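Chapter review: from sequence to fold.
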Amino acid sequence: MATGSDGRPARVPFVVFELFEHPAHGMAALAFTTLEKLVEALGEAQPWAATSLGPLAEGVADQDVTVLLDPRLAPGEPNWRPEDLAAYVQEVRR
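The token string follows.
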């Protein structure tokens, strides 16, 4: 854990990027131009952060990851269920 200027423990903000295996693009980070498009593609229980595309691309560039904007995804089981998201939120807040 980091310490603040007063010497007390301090939280350090961070963003975690979830990567997906894409048949044509290899490992990919998904980006959406609207919340509605994200929910349509991945379901309602998604951890997300609003950012511009530049920081996302820079954040994954070292791992040779493609950023896909508003991808169309085959229907299937969602990665996150509401209970998964609730558990993730609890863990991050600790």
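Two observations follow directly from the output. The mean pLDDT is 86. The first helix runs from residue 35 to 42.
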